[in-house]
Write a structure and sequence with these properties.
single chain; nine-stranded mixed beta sheet; six-stranded mixed beta sheet; 36% helix; globular; cytoplasm; Mur_ligase_cen; UDP-N-acetylmuramoylalanine--D-glutamate ligase; EC 6.3.2.9; nucleotide-binding
Length: 471
């Protein structure tokens, strides 16, 4: 099925708690490679998903999976705990305390993938990419470059397929894993041949009890690296600059990256990525702004470390289509572009899009992160009007009011999108930008659903007004 031996983990017993995006693939992979697995999820939906998956498995595999609550973890090899469930802070889940009592490790699925690959005899290389923002774009771009270079590649982790849904690669293969701070907390033997920390801004502070704890979790991407490895660090924030200063002393070679700073090893300038004074690749329309130049610089630095020729890199970057919901142009109507940046779930992410446009109509709101949108004040002069949606719209409105930014309490995307188009058309503003600076769970199942709804509404607006123009 995935290239791993059906007896790879034979005789071993694993506990899996949580049956979401990471947990269910972990259960299926472990059972299909000979392990016995006990699993539980407090949510009925997760357990129903497992039951559906079990019906598709061979009987000898299905019988290795037992779904029931845990009374003890004695005798288990390890506990694979879904990333969102805390094992230390702010308060450990009871299952984590049970693992500690039993003396067994709490691991991420990425750790199990690494063990499975090495146990299978493959020398495939591992790349870990982390940071507060830009992880998904960098991961996907690097995988695209490696694919264009004809290298066997599997990308996933926090983005796309879970780590244990990825196949076994040969010695020449490369695993490109997007790593969240939650996943990095639970590594043991996994060492990344190339590791990247793009940037650090406040996020998940409750889980890590402040920026110091958050930075320490992110730094774990470099744990265990040797002189044969590569460390890549962004230089566009103070936290990363401090970490880069530490990494310059080794053991891994350290390359610095920036969206704009020519003092770094790789940097963006004039719509291209440069290595010192040499232009490596043009970034094109799919990678707008300094933040995407930083992402591209990271991917290029790692690709060159993996011996991809510069000509292949340049061609691959030029053909990169971009990611959904990350500054994606989704519709245009009568001189107004609709740009979907729904992935911007915090203020720092939204700042990267706001900085790309001289004049825009902004749609923002949802469930605000700590600090709201106060850090975005430098971009307020570019905003012709803001339409606010979601639970914390009143909080955002207060900040806008304090800085004399005109706004409308639209409440929902259904109200905001057509009103934003009308405002943009009347004021000759070229862009309607959905970059919410907030999480989406108050009104949507996730940022993807929010972005898709924005696209639908933009298409409806364009169809309606295109028809009126024709009349």
């Amino acid at each position: 099925m995935n290239g791993f031996s059906p007896s790879l983990f034979s005789g071993q017993r694993f506990a899996v708690f949580g049956l979401g995006k990471n947990g269910l693939p972990a259960v299926l992979m472990l059972a299909s490679t000979g392990a016995t697995v006990q699993v539980w999820d407090d949510g009925e939906g997760g357990r129903k998903g497992l039951a559906k998956a079990l019906s598709t498995l061979a009987p000898n595999v299905a019988t290795r999976i037992q779904c029931k609550p845990f009374e003890s973890l004695n005798g288990f090899e390890a506990l694979i705990l879904s990333p969102g469930i805390p094992h230390v802070l702010p308060k450990p889940h009871p299952i984590a305390l049970m693992a500690k009592e039993a003396g067994i490790p709490i691991l991420s699925d990425a750790e199990l993938l690494y063990r499975a690959v090495r146990k299978s005899g493959s020398k495939a290389r591992f790349v870990g990419i982390t940071g507060t923002n830009g992880k998904s774009t960098t991961t996907t771009l690097l995988a695209h470059i490696l694919t264009e270079a004809k290298l066997p590649v599997a990308a996933g982790g926090n983005l796309g397929p879970a780590a244990l849904a990825l196949p076994l690669l040969p010695d020449s293969g490369v695993y490109v894993l997007e790593m969240s701070s939650y996943m990095l907390e639970r590594l043991d033997t996994l060492r990344f041949d190339a590791a990247c920390l793009l940037n650090l801004t406040p996020d998940h502070l409750d889980r890590h009890v402040g920026m110091d704890g958050y930075a320490q979790a992110k730094k774990r991407v470099f744990t265990g690296q040797t002189g044969k490895d590569l460390a890549v660090v962004g230089m566009d924030d103070t936290w990363c600059r401090t970490i880069a200063a530490e990494l310059e002393h080794g053991p891994a070679k350290c390359e610095t990256i920036s969206g704009t700073n020519p003092a770094c090893s790789y940097y963006g300038k004039d719509g291209a990525i440069w290595h010192h004074s040499t232009c490596i690749a043009q970034t094109g329309l799919s990678l707008p702004g300094a933040h995407n130049a930083e992402n591209a610089a990271a991917a290029i630095a790692i690709a060159r470390f993996l011996d991809v020729p510069d000509a292949t890199i340049a061609q691959a970057v030029a053909s990169f289509p971009g990611l959904p919901h990350r500054q994606k142009l989704v519709a245009s109507c009568n001189g107004v572009d609709f740009v979907d940046d729904s992935k911007a779930t915090n203020a720092d992410a939204a700042s990267r899009a706001l900085g790309c446009y001289e004049k825009l109509v902004w749609i923002a709101g949802g469930t605000a992160k700590e600090g709201g949108i106060a850090s975005l004040t430098p971009y307020f002069p570019h905003i012709a009007h803001t339409f606010l949606i979601g639970r914390d719209a009143p909080q955002l409105a207060q900040t806008l009011k304090e800085h004399n930014v005109p706004f409308t309490m639209a409440e929902t995307l259904e109200n905001a999108v057509p009103a934003a188009y009308t405002e943009a058309h009347l004021t000759h503003t070229p862009v309607v930008l959905l970059s919410p600076a907030c999480a989406s769970f108050d009104q949507f199942s996730g940022f993807e659903a929010r972005g898709l709804r924005f696209q639908e509404l933009a298409d409806e607006v364009c169809a309606r007004h295109a028809g009126m123009t024709e009349q």
